[in-house]
Predict the 3D structure of the following.
Amino acid sequence: MPRYATHVLEPLDRGGALAARLRHVIQLEGVNKHYPRSNRPSVEDVNVFIDKGEFVFFIGPTGAGKSTIIKLLLREEVPDKGTITVGDMDVTKLRRWKVPAYRRSIGCVFQDFRLLPNRTAAENVAFALEVIGKPRSVARRVVPEVLELVGLGGKEHRYPHELSGGEQQRVAVARAFVNRPLLLLADEPTGNLDPDTSIEIMRLLDRISRTGTTIVMVTHDSNIVNQMRRRVIEIENGQIVRDQARGVYG
Amino acid sequence: MRAKYVMSEVFLGLWRNISMTVAMIITMAVSLTMLGAGLLLYNQVDVIERYYQTNLEVVIYLDREITEEVTDQIHSDLRSNQYVAEVEFESKEKAWERFQETFSESEELIASVNSEVLPAAFRIKLKDIDNAPLLIEEYAGRDGVYQATNQREILDDVFNILGGAQKLTLIVALVQGVAALMLVANTIQVAAYSRRREVAIMKLVGAPNWFVQAPFVMEAVFAGIIGAIFAFGTLIAAKVFVIDGQFSNLFSLMPPVEWNSVILLLPILAGIAAVISAVTAWITLRFNIKV
């Protein structure tokens, strides 16, 4: 039975709605997104509720619409229909100038790491603090801590090209986590890594999840999904076809 | 900290794309020089007009065989005329003196002219020079009057030339200005492309929009202000070497182009360049960097 159904059946009293709102970090209700003039994957009538601290895998074939959901959550795209709520913010009604502030509550990790090549590991992480106006003293205190947390103690001053793929991804995770986001989005974070390194990254994400951070991860990696045994949402042709509490890949 | 980051990004951006930066500054400088010259001409026409407004005269030349009686009659009529502020009689002898004075550098011309040829005249200052045609109409056909002339008409030719020059400079300024703005737009696009990684990451971690856009806008503003400084230098050089130097005789008939109005151009040109570049950059960014 799909997990969201229970919430739909909840009584419509205000207290109940408020409680639901507080419990869910992410709510997607009746979300539609079509790209009329391109063959980018669209999504249709997506209803997902994700609780605080949950670890959720989005799986499905290429072009099913997984990345579109990430884009919608990041507010790079706006849905044609439906509402998206993250934390206490209605993302669909968010004004343009408020988008940057919204994104600060989200951390992001990608397949291609997206590090600045001319900055060291520590500088890459500090950059995330710098551009949102945190004073340098904060960066000096927080950056070594978070690099230690992701297991890169002692490699702060290495440049991305001096680090292995797994280490680069750790830097990216550190950068995503340094602002202690409510939500961490990971778009195929192990896509470029070998199986052993992938497992290390997953252990890291698991640890972050245990701090109460909600993690949404898009992946093709069946091994990882099967090992982790977390909630799995499967998408096909833009629609949710499975939503399983302790699911496996296929 | 953030200001330092923005500034280092600005210079890095300009340096990375140095040929485009130079092209942008040169076009901007040419456009602004023309704009500055146009503004100076505009101001100069005004200055000349005001200068002559108080100095322009209507001159009524008298017949050579005029009797003293008729002369006196005209003189008293002029003095009681409603348009006239001041009348000065210039006798043949005085006219000859003045002629000698005016052409003192060409003795041959003076030698070839008979001192008797020059007519006596009334030099008349009007309360309002715009009424000159009315006065001329009144006196042109009168007995004893040889010719009534209005200096304003001569001046109109000068104004026409200045007006034409002004239009030309403004057209060149506009065309060059459009070219300069296209270069600004192009430079910004190139800069945005070469910094797309940084921009993508900045947006991802929630850097405010102004912070993402600041380095690009500052790049354009910086180039605009450098262009304005070059334009200002060119105008100073034009004032020193052309107006006050080589062609000083040509400009001796008019009041000089004043230093004050030239210097005032620096803040005006810099301001215009900065604002227009910033707006162009900002609009370009709206199309190139989506939130």
Observations:
- The beta strands of chain B are 57-62, 84-90, 121-126, 145-150.
- Chain B has a mean pLDDT of 84.
- Chain B has two domains: 2-52+156-288, 55-151.
- The longest strand of chain B covers residues 84-90.
